[in-house]
Amino acid sequence: MFPVSLRVPVRLGALLAVPLAGWGGTAQAQDRDHVVLGAGVAVTPVRQGADDYRLLPIPTIDIKEGWFFANLRNGIGIEPIDTGAVTIGVSAVFLQGYRKRDVPAGIDRLSDGVGARVFANIRTHGFVATLGTTKGVSGGTEGVIADASLSYPVALSSRFTLTPTIGASWADGKHNNRYFGVTAAESLASGLPRFTAGSGFKDVSGALTASYRLTDRISLSATGSVTSLLGEVKDSPLVERKTQPMGLLAFTYRM
């Protein structure tokens, strides 16, 4: 998710992390240190609110060695607190902007950036919850995004697992205004009305992942996800589609 790590859009983080759960909780409970590597392909909007899509090759990575970790949900960092039931960590993540070709003529591009993230993973009664806050330290918005998700892996057999996930995110005015806003200059250049947005809930999402272990080490996963914009940002003139589906197909190999 980042220049110093995995260059994966942060909005795909929840979707991409789910397939790795297909290995099940037992193996990782017995051996918390692990390395899971793989590759996948995602069909994703070119930006939030866009009508156009693109096909992205995606590295699927989940590494845990002592305090150090690298994965597609929380980035690269350390987890100094890990009791099995509760994990708390800090990390660096990649924050995706958008290209000039992906916005109407007259709208400026939004540069990619790096964010500092603090998060907690909680596992209880079969549920897996993630709470996190990311502060942009470079790039186009440098705002704050808070996110929450809840998953419940269901093992239908020793090899096949279904994992439904729901999630939501909140963003401050700086992020929302810079990502979805239209300045006076951009309004004149594009013909779009001027638009500003304050802080508030930004989106809500739902996903379903099917994971199948082909062997003890190789897994195939497919994920479908739908995200809907909320609040003021959904009324931005840059928003062409308020509800956007995404998809991911991935192979992973547990070292």
Task: Provide structural commentary.
This protein is mostly beta strands and 255 residues long. It contains four helices and 13 strands. It has helices at 13-17, 25-30, 173-180, 184-190; strands at residues 34-45, 53-65, 68-71, 75-82, 86-95, 113-124, 127-136, 144-151, 154-155, 160-171, 200-213, 218-229, 243-254. It has a twelve-stranded antiparallel beta barrel. Strand 9 and strand 10 (160-171) form a beta hairpin. It is globular and about 60 Å long.
The largest sheet, given as strand count, sense and whether it forms a barrel, is: 12 strands, antiparallel, barrel
What spatial form do the alpha-carbon principal axes imply?
globular
Distance between the termini: 21 Å
Rounded average pLDDT: 88
Which quaternary structure do these chains form? single chain
Backbone CA Rg: 18 Å
What fraction, in percent, of the residue positions are helical? 10-25%
Which regions have little confidence, pLDDT < 50, spanning 5+ residues? 1-10, 17-30
Number of helices: 4
Q: Structural class from helices and strands? A: mainly beta
Query: How many strand elements?
Result: 13
Strand order across the largest sheet: 1-2-3-4-5-6-7-8-10-11-12-13
